[in-house]
# Entry
Amino acid sequence: MGIYSFWIFDKHCNCIFDREWTLTSSSSSGTINSKQNEETAKLLYGMVYSLRSITQKLSKGSIKNDVRSISTGKYRIHTYCTATGVWFVLLTDFKQQSYTQVLQHVYSHIYVKFISNNLFSPYDFADNESEMRGQGTRKITNKNFIDSLNAFLSPMVGQ
Amino acid sequence: MPHQKIIQTSSIDAQSSTRSTSNTGTHYDDLLYQRSLIYKKNEISLSAMTFLFQEMINYLHQSSSTMSEFELKLSRYGQSIGLRLLELLNFRASLPASLTSIPTRSSILFSSSAPLTDQANSNSTNTPDAIRKREEESSTNADLAKHITKMRRRDLKILDILQFIHGTLWSYLFHHVSDDLVKSSERNNEYMIVDNEPQLTQFIPQSSKFLNSCHFFVCGMIQGFLLNGGFPCSVSPHLMPVDGFDERVIYLIKFDEQVLERESLRF
Amino acid sequence: MSRSRSSTTTQSRSLKVTGEEIWKNKTEKINTELFALTYGALVAQLFEDYDNDYSLINERLFSMGYNIGVRLIEDFLARTALPRCEDMVRTSEVISKCAFKIFLNITPHVTNWSNNKDSFSLIIEDNPLSEFVELPMNAKKQIWYSNVLCGVLKGALEMVQLDCDVWFVADILKGDPQTELKIKLNKILKDEIPIGDD
# Structure
């Protein structure tokens, strides 16, 4: 296993996409936007969010002190946050040090292409205030997005 | 019908531009006509263009109640551009290379631009300002015209003008000649221009039922170009994906009967 | 502190290089005139649809720009990978040297700073939207032909949490000596926090 799961959070603290390769209950290739992941998503976001708040407090003045990865005993969490507040999060094993380029690629060549630049996809997944601050449920379901993300990330699963 | 529409549009434009020439001339206005004629080969990013194109589609979609209304409106946008490009590209094509950098053949279409100018002048108010302005304009145009040594007759044959679209117009719009120009084997009034990778629609998902309709913009440009050249026709898009080119589109041109009749005459 | 001063100038020079490098090597390009003619066709349509109600047309152009801006910002960030700016001076540099450069291949001049550095002007030379354009006389006084640009900037800045007012103060098309666009910061928007965390 190289990568375990992939997550996107929007600026409203909502998980707008998740892709899990270790949960095999629904199919052998893992799950996309699974209900099972809702709670995990909230915890994951909470952790990344808190760490970010702390690092920003610790580094007054400098804005470049971003969280890039967090390690635990068993895996590593890689994060990439855009200036617009979209978080890309990847859970992996320890074999590879940095996944920043992978996440940047997902953002620039997949997310921007199929979501932001696509008139037929919403650019904001929260319709109103009741869907902000982590209360939203809408997900990315765009087929082109899912297909190209799969094509890009799947080869890294079995590494 | 669409033919009439075009003529209306251009006469309205001519009027409004006349109105503004009677305004106190600024340095900018003085330069406008000459500057516009010379091709400066400026570029912007394709992204900026596709964002604008998408927003234009968004606006049209909101203001149309049916898909065919949407297609008609989008096509009309294209037409208003196409009919201007015929004049512009032909004029530029006849300027010597030192003044223009677009690779074209030497031909010019002064004959069809003349009526437009006349109309503009007849509607103009004859204030001293307007007269002075017109004189300036004509001297500006004369400056450019001095450089033109060879004027070519305008395109009279279907194949000539289609070649011009395939080569010059396409290079101007998209930096490359169109991927193919084909005559239908079944109907003798039908021709096809092929684009393997249409640029303007690149962010509109293939799965969208909308995609085909969005090609009416380029259809309109081709149609406007041909109408203004005296080749009334209709143009429609057809998605024809092939291996490696999922977004390939064919612009099908159907010429009106009169064009074929004229074509069969000997000049 | 003296170090951070000198690093600001280095940064601004490198923004210029970044912008030029991305424009040159990583940007697909298209003819400016097609862009200008397309925009012209759109504005002409608005003149017709809104029956020459110029303030409505200005508004509509602005809102179209806004719709573009909120998406365009992601495209911009994907190309440049720039972080948020620490102040408006930096923001002005990024807009002029990177954003305008990458999308429209021009670099407007930044000037007319307010004393507290929260508002500035962009002087736009060779505005690609204005190519071929001569405004009808009765529209000249009221129309802001390129108002779409204000909307784009408004939308894009809002997405990086900068609530700004953006407006034209002069346009060469109206007979002004230059085209000047003003950006004023109202406030920096706060990032949302998950419910229950405050």
User: Anything to note?
Assistant: Residues 66 and 151 of chain C are 4 Å apart (CA to CA). DSSP finds six helices and five strands in chain C. Chain C touches chain A through 22 residues (CB under 8 Å). Confidence is low (pLDDT under 50) at residues 1-6 of chain C.
